Amino acid sequence: MLAQRLRCSRGEARHRINDTHTFGLRHTLTGDVLEPLLPEAAAAIADGRIGPEHTTILRDFTTHLPTTIDPSDRCEALRQLAHIAADYTPEQTGSSGMTVRGWALRSG
C-alpha cells in the first residue's frame, strides 16, 4: 500500500519503513515517546548530512554487529559510525565500519 501511495517500488517502500524504524521516534504502548535507535544518525539525517546510502550502511552495521558485544561498546561503535557517516562518503563509511566493528569486537 505504501508503495502505491508513494509511487515507488516495493523495495524502496520497505527501505523507507526500515529507516523509520531505525532512525525515527518510537512510541511505547502507553504512548510515551522513545528516542530513535540511533539518535546521532537521526540528527544527521534531519540535518541532511546523511543520505539513503549511509542509512543502509548504518542499518546493516547494526544488524551484523554481534549481540555478545557489551551494550556500552555497542552504543559507542554505533555513535562513532554515525559521526563518520556525517562527514564522509558512503564508501568511506562502509570501510570505516569494518574498522569500528573490529574495535567493538576487541573491546567486547
From TrEMBL:
Pfam families linked: DUF222
Domain spans labelled DUF222: 1-92
InterPro entries, alphabetized: DUF222
Protein name, entry field: DUF222 domain-containing protein
UniProt source species: Mycolicibacterium brumae
Upper lineage: Bacteria, Bacillati, Actinomycetota, Actinomycetes, Mycobacteriales
